[in-house]
Amino acid sequence: MLLKMFRTPKFWYKKNIISKLQIIPLYPFSILWTLVDEFKRYFSKTYKSKLKVICVGNMTVGGTGKTPFSIYTFKILKKLGYNPVFLTRGYGGLKKGPIEVNNSHHFQDVGDESILLSKVGTTIVSRNRSLGAKFIEKHKDKFNVIIMDDGLQNYQLKQDIKFLLVDKKIKLGNGYCVPAGPLRQPIKRGLYDIDKIILTGESDKNEEDLFKSFNIPVIRSNIKITNLPKLKKEKLLAFCGLANPNKFFCTLKKNGYEISSTRKFPDHYAYKKNDINSLIFDANDQDLKLITTEKDYVKISENKDQIHFLPIELELCVKDKLNFELFLQEKLNA
Prior knowledge:
There is one protein chain. The protein is 31% helix and 20% strand. The protein contains eleven helices and 14 strands. It has helices at 17-23, 27-43, 66-79, 107-110, 112-118, 129-137, 187-190, 245-254, 273-285, 294-297, 318-332, and strands spanning 52-57, 84-88, 99-100, 123-125, 145-149, 161-167, 196-200, 218-220, 222-225, 235-240, 258-264, 289-293, 307-310, 312-315. The protein is globular. The model is unreliable at 1-5 (pLDDT under 50).
């Protein structure tokens, strides 16, 4: 939980001398982190579900677009005639589960990501993923595919398909594990048995070269903005609580929005009444309009009518989309 409540250190994504010096005192703790992960992997009892399990995850701390890609995969599966269901830990929520997310749940109950997923399809929150899968199996007449949003480092549930999401710009950072770097596990371990790498975010560079030596198919995804807020002629105060907030600000600028001011909050931040009132006051004082992410918007309970959000989706090009559909059918029908 602590990892979700602090801002990403800048030295994680730099390789200059100062950044390397900052790594030195933290490196022993990175070794300890790696040993703990190996311990969990070796001693965890893994459950094989009666349903196919697709895992959408990442190797780094912070957001890489797992939830949007899970939603994209859900819609593709529905189109292909499958009946998918989301399974998530409900990070930041108080409920251990397994429970089905419904309209009465607040983000403090089940986490912000679960609320977003539930707007698209049936969503089960369970801290213990094997118990979550067994809960879903009781309704296997309704579902035949589980989409696990986040969980490549979870060893409680066997995964039939593994998608690794990597941000095009920050990639794998400095290559070290937490706290010396952003990795949740060593690169070689994290790439083991991955079916496809999905590149997310914005970048003009050829990031595929980074993964050529691992012989894993790489797919580039693009951000698609739906229902654009009509704020192109307005000056904005943009705010968010993300591990990589600059991704949101860059997306706004790329789509023609004028950002006059920004506010950054810790990842998965739970907004208080005073936070929102302060943002509204600052925006009004500077004659600005407020805008945030949809993920942040679901955590705001008051004065939502004074705040706009930017709805985004991930999409693949026509060729990659066709290959992705064929891949899913082949693996799920095997």
